[in-house]
């Protein structure tokens, strides 16, 4: 199955108590719980990688990572996509990796402002299969802006992979093609997701 269904954490999901995990000292006073242990994140990414590889088949693709939060997801996803090709065929599929930075956040709430950084040179995406890799979709405004920019480059196809999607009343309705976890409307950190930077 390669639809965009995912693991859903319900609103009353409590996560795991901090005392059972090694929590970075700088987070000690601000965390409520461990929402998703890293092993589960890795296992889920393995399956997302399989879905991406199945959909792309033998087609080359251009991975476009949304910084800053997306870099760890990108690295783990690509590694696992490569493993899929290694196991399933004699040759690997070529892909490129590029980075874009979009800022839409101040403190822990969306400002509605989306600042696009570093998008001058995206014309190379013309006629390419683009895989956008994002850490989290909240309202979806950031991703909408990026998708509009990408459409102007006339790519062959565009798919979006987001490790997390937030269940929020202010959602624009945008649903990525590949989603790791749907989470309640809470602010999360860790796994390279940044805070106010
Ligand atoms: P959106 O435009 O979808 O409202 O916001 C998306 C961006 O906001 C993400 O790429 C991420 O940088 C940031 N963001 C949204 N929710 C969270 C969250 O719970 N934790 C962190 N660290 N960043 C978030």
UniProtKB/TrEMBL annotation:
Pfam families named among the record's database cross-references: Pribosyltran
Keyword Zinc in annotation: no
Occurrences of domain Phosphoribosyltransferase (ranges): 41-195
Essential cofactor(s): Mg(2+)
Alphabetical UniProt keywords: Cytoplasm, Glycosyltransferase, Magnesium, Metal-binding, Nucleotide-binding, Purine salvage, Transferase
Taxonomy, superkingdom: Eukaryota
Claim: Nucleotide-binding is one of the keywords in the record: yes
UniProt catalytic activity: IMP + diphosphate = hypoxanthine + 5-phospho-alpha-D-ribose 1-diphosphate
Enzyme Commission number(s): 2.4.2.8
Pathway per the UniProt entry: Purine metabolism; IMP biosynthesis via salvage pathway; IMP from hypoxanthine: step 1/1
Compartments where found: Cytoplasm
Protein name: Hypoxanthine phosphoribosyltransferase
Similarity-based family: Belongs to the purine/pyrimidine phosphoribosyltransferase family.
InterPro entries: HGPRT, Hxn_phspho_trans, PRTase-like, PRTase_dom
Native organism: Limulus polyphemus
Position of the signal peptide: none
Gene3D superfamilies: 3.40.50.2020
Xref: PANTHER family: HYPOXANTHINE PHOSPHORIBOSYLTRANSFERASE, HYPOXANTHINE-GUANINE PHOSPHORIBOSYLTRANSFERASE
Enzyme class: transferase
């Amino acid at each position: 199955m390669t639809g965009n269904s995912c693991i859903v954490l319900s609103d009353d999901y409590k996560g795991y108590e901090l005392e059972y995990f090694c929590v970075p000292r700088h987070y000690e006073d601000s965390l409520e719980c461990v929402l998703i242990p890293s092993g589960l994140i890795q296992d889920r990414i393995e399956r997302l990688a399989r879905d991406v590889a199945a959909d792309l088949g033998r087609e080359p693709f251009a991975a476009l990572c949304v910084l800053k939060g997306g870099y760890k997801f990108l690295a783990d996803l690509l590694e696992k996509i490569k493993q899929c090709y290694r196991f399933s065929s004699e040759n690997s599929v070529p892909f490129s990796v590029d980075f874009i930075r979009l800022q839409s956040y101040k403190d822990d709430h969306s400002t509605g402002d989306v600042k696009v950084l570093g998008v001058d040179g995206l014309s190379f995406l013309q006629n390419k299969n683009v895989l956008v890799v994002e850490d989290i979709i909240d309202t979806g405004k950031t991703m909408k802006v990026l998708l509009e920019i990408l459409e102007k480059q006339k790519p062959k196809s565009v798919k979006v992979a987001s490790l997390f999607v937030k269940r929020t009343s202010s959602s624009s309705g945008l649903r990525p093609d590949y989603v790791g976890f749907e989470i309640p409307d809470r602010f999360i950190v860790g796994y390279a997701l940044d805070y106010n930077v």
